[in-house]
Amino acid sequence: MENASIVTKVLVIDDGDIDILDGIKRFCQDNNIIALKTHSGNVMNVLRTNVDLGGILLSESYRDHPKGGIKLAKEIRATRPELPIFLRRKKVATLSDLDESTRRLFCAAYTADTIDELKEPLTDFIFSFDFPNVMVRGIQAITEDALNAHFKHFSMSCDPPYLVKDSIVCGELFTLVPLESTWCRGYMMLQCDNRTIKLGPETIDPEDPPSPSRISDVLGEVTNMIWGYFKARYVGDEDQRLISQIQVPMLIKLNERDISFGSSTPQLCFKYTLTDLSDQSSPPLYIYQRFVFNLKWTPESFKELEIATSEELVEAGELEFF
Length: 322
Prior knowledge:
By secondary structure, the protein is α/β, with parallel strands linked by helices. The chain folds into two domains: 7-125, 3-Layer(aba) Sandwich (Rossmann fold); 133-301, Chemotaxis protein chec (3-Layer(aba) Sandwich). 26% of the residues lie in helices and 27% in strands. The protein contains eight helices and 15 strands. Strand 1 (7-13), helix 1 (18-30) and strand 2 form a beta-alpha-beta unit. Helix 6 (133-150) runs antiparallel to helix 7. The longest helix is centred in the C-terminal third of the chain and has 19 residues, at 216-234. The chain starts with 6 loop residues before the first strand and ends in a 7-residue tail after the last helix. 29% of the residues are buried.
């Protein structure tokens, strides 16, 4: 089964020379990585925001100090412990010469000359899950259908799907629904800011303008619709009796807008941008969709169920026209 080409975002914390940075940029471009960089000294401010990341590429000699990167890694671990950190060293692509407490800060080491050898640890720590392409594209399609049903006078776009390892909640509002099948067990979340939007007529009619609504009034309905589509398309009713009921506790830190599922499982993410066509002055609405299969993930058992159309059900005698 073809696997989807999914990207991830990494924060590059490196003030090496132009050749080193060009090498990192080339490596990222070749390996489905969106590289983000921030100004020196602003790293922790960025990491304290809700920027979604898959990992960090960090220079050991950051800010011209031989151990500047190691010192910064300790701060990062305290703030964002879920993010894997890959350490660029000057001479050796190993962590073996570091003390044990320092080694635990990092997932792997590399040099400018051995950066291509990062592919394996990246697979282990970020791209550790394979997602069937038909599932990823199907999720996007059913989500867009659900959003279009409620946001009828909005235009919509979706960023390429990506992976994150963080547990940040993107916005003030999120919904959570469990997903259970014989091939997966986990959760789907929708996250966004709880702002006022205008919802109403299917067509933009100046005589019948949309009325103001809170996004919280409809996000639950959208979540339920997506869940129903997902179940109908990917979860067979006959398999429900085989599903294990083992659970793990979730940790929610409301003041930090952080939710942890008890594992470092990468999360499959989609970002939808909705633009109000009836009010060009209204800022876009961003809805973040995340899937975490922290309890079970066996994509080799995944299959898309055949969904009968209403016409086929009529022909089969299951339905009749009223």
